[in-house]
Specification:
Shape: globular
Largest sheet: 8 strands, mixed
Structural class: alpha/beta
Oligomer: single chain
CATH superfamily: P-loop containing nucleotide triphosphate hydrolases
Low-confidence stretches: 1-6, 11-28
Distance between the termini: 43 Å
CATH architecture: 3-Layer(aba) Sandwich
Strand order of the largest sheet: 3-4-2-5-1-6-7-8
CATH class: Alpha Beta
Helix content: 40-55%
Number of strands: 8
Number of domains: 1
Length: 301
């Protein structure tokens, strides 16, 4: 069986949805939102400020969506490769990664790997990706290389989540150019709004020149410490700036969330009943609602 045929077998929706499992039936009906899309919605998780919970959000949200029966592809576009290791994937010598897709002649479909979670797949990254920005300089239409690759697999997934590096370089530009929506994690601390202006400016330029279909899906407040006034003050300030664009779900600061990556498991698996896991499930539900609303607005337009 060729890599492509192997992937089609594992990504086939019928393989996972022939009948509901007892676990599926036990899940609460939270005003029922359809977890599926005819063509994948591509969501980029971006913030050029480091340490805001961006990769944790990408991994945990991907796992929560997959748990809710969406077919999810997580694309690790950060040379640190933390999203890959966060779902338990250790890249082996000779294994195809997102670097090979962007710079080499490997098709995206052949770089996709399954994870231990049903419905969740990943395109891994390694430190080699750090050189991609230099190698892509001379490439034709370099800003849209990832978009062209992602377009080839849109029919096989419901949601594609892209984890960006903490920068506004060519990799992030590629991720934004490929996106239908953007989720921006904001840490509940004093410098939360630092750099958001630059991110918004770049996103506006990309929307105007490269990707007119891109929308802001929302801002998610992370690392909320309910014991301090500062956290709530930051939330209030962000809400005053961005209003309904801020998700109502707040991600708490949590030791369990911090421990999960070291075990190669998303929080929904590592501690399924923890506050962090419940928060990301609630966020996944909000995200699905917004994606469907955005899709309907596009259809009506």
């Amino acid at each position: 069986m060729t890599p492509r045929a192997w992937y089609r077998y594992w990504a086939d929706p019928a393989r996972f949805h022939v009948k509901p499992t007892p676990q599926d039936e036990a899940q609460p009906d939270r005003d029922e939102v359809n977890p599926h899309f005819e063509v994948a919605r591509v969501i980029t998780v971006a913030n050029q400020k480091g340490g805001v919970g961006k990769t944790t959000t990408a991994v945990s949200l991907a796992a929560a969506l997959a748990e809710g029966r969406s077919r999810v592809l997580l694309v690790d576009l950060d040379p640190q490769g933390n999203a890959s290791s966060g779902v338990g994937l250790r890249v082996q010598p000779g294994q195809s990664t997102v670097y090979d897709v962007l710079v080499g002649d490997v098709e995206l479909v052949d770089a996709i790997e399954p994870t231990s979670l049903r419905n969740l797949f990943v395109v891994p990254a390694t430190i080699d990706l750090a050189g991609a920005e230099i190698e892509l300089v001379s490439a034709f239409s370099r800003e849209q290389k990832l978009r062209r690759c992602v377009d080839t697999i849109r029919g096989d997934f419901d949601i594609v989540l892209i984890d960006c590096p903490p920068s506004l370089g060519l990799l992030t530009v590629n991720a934004l150019s490929a996106a239908d929506g953007v989720i921006v994690p904001i840490q509940c601390e004093y410098y939360a709004l630092e750099g958001l202006g630059a991110l918004q400016h770049n996103a506006d330029l990309i929307k105007a020149n490269l990707n007119p279909g891109m929308h802001l899906t929302g801002f998610v407040m992370t690392m909320l410490d309910g014991r301090t006034r500062l956290s709530q003050q930051v939330v209030d300030e962000v809400v005053s700036h961005f209003g309904d664009q801020v998700f109502t779900t707040r991600i708490p600061r949590s030791v369990r969330l911090a421990e999960a990556p070291s075990y190669g498991q998303p929080i929904t698996v590592f501690d399924a009943n923890s506050k962090g896991a419940k928060a990301y499930r609630a966020l996944a539900h909000e995200v699905l609602h917004r994606l469907h609303d955005q899709w309907l607005s596009e259809v009506e337009a």
